[in-house]
Amino acid sequence: MVKKFPDNFLWGGATAANQYEGAYNEDGKGLTVQDVTPHGGFGPITDEPTEDNLKLVGIDFYHRYKEDIALFAEMGFKVYRTSIAWARIFPKGDELEPNEAGLAFYDKVFDECLKHGIEPLVTLSHYETPLHLTREYDGWTNRKLIEFYERYVTVVFNRYKDKVKYWLTFNEINSVLHAPFMSGGIGTPPEELSKQNLYQAVHHELVASASATKIAHEINPDFKIGCMVIAMPTYPMTPDPEDVVAAMQAERSNYLFSDVHVRGKYPNYANRFFKENGIEIEFAEGDKELLAENTVDFLSFSYYMSVTQAADHSKYDTGKGNILGGLKNPHLKASEWGWQIDPKGLYLALNDFYDRYQIPLFIVENGLGAVDQLIEVDGELTVDDQYRIDYMNDHLVEVGNAIEDGVEVMGYTSWGCIDLVSASTAEMSKRYGFIYVDRNNDGSGTLNRYKKKSFNWYKEVIATNGESLVD
């Protein structure tokens, strides 16, 4: 039996506006980078939204949020991670005044959560930079985006200061190195984007994140502000010291982002990397102090898989994964999309982060993308997703093990707690949820919701505070 989780542990689920809200052009919302990437974050970019883009409708949470939040409450959620679509508040991103209809929508969503005793955990920018900021300014390569972001976060912090306590500044901020358009709104094609401009964009986002943290604490000192990164434990392929160094360097490219957020300055290894790659980060007056004085209250992360690295990639198969690639680990099984399944990697990630930073950690994405089949059981439509239950049980057992080690874990929000459109592939068939949504890859379906087998399993996990998990 797994030992009890902390009494105040925040159990819940996670979603993102661009993958499930729909209503892409309703109530004054502007276009985002997601509206012109119908085939996922790495696919072709269109001039205008096209009918084959499932994200334009998503799962219609915009009109069905009461029904969905009631289902989350039935599972017993203590917290619900969602995001605000920046372009609902500032349709182009650079306006001086916000869109009231957009603000009013999130008032209703947060009120509905609070009515059910669910704490909102809100991501301010989740892969949905307003498209105008991409086309007019080349996204985060331009320092002007800091000002636009500051204006946006000031509006939402003031608006929801009595409704939302937990905030994340950017989703998977380290992904900008691998998905500059989706993550950073950078319109320059990747093959033309210089390392200088890419890392300058990184700097602008890090400064904006620190500025948001400062603004938040000034508006409401009780706010808890976190950064959010992709956690990707990296194993050396062999004991060859060169492979061990390759794994270390891969992990450092991710640690750079959390190091700045938590420690308030660029690490020394980054300075060497910049020097060797001809990168000179331009600091504006006050940037250094802003980063140092406005570190985050907690570190949050997504965890789906680990990877391996080697000095010579040509000898090994390349693995697939959550934006950040690596080599295939011969000791692990994989999901239907090739993401390697490694519960022990979550245990390692939690310990590594806590050993490094000694601040609270929050697992805000974890789950299994799989093809689910609706079946009828006792006259009800459902999904027998025992594979998802097994995956999540094994990962949560490792969370319990890390807590036993003394790691301070605030909570766990399962990714895609209700089926939504995949970020990487823009498919509906890659499902993560406890709730099945009747929508298909061709856009057909009723959008009706059905509880999967995992729905009642997770409800029991929450009700017992983890004691029902099987070690």
Q: How many H/I helical runs?
A: 14
Number of strands: 16
**Percent of residues in beta strands?**
5-15%
**What letter string, H or E per element, gives the SSE order?**
EHHEHHEHHEHHEEHHHEEEEHEEEHEEEH
Count of the domains: 1
Radius of gyration: 21 Å
Structural class by secondary-structure content: alpha/beta
Give the name of the CATH superfamily.
Answer: Glycosidases
Find the CATH topology.
Answer: TIM Barrel
The percent of residues in helical segments reads 25-40%
Q: Which architecture would the CATH scheme give at its second level? A: Alpha-Beta Barrel
Q: What ranges have pLDDT less than 50 throughout 5 or more consecutive residues?
A: none
Based on Cα principal axes, name the global outline. globular
> If strands are numbered along the chain, what order do they take across the biggest sheet?
1-2-3-4-5-7-11-14
The CATH class designation is: Alpha Beta
- Distance N to C terminus: 6 Å
Keywords: Glycosidase, Hydrolase
Organism: Candidatus Enterococcus willemsii
Family: Belongs to the glycosyl hydrolase 1 family.
Protein name: 6-phospho-beta-glucosidase
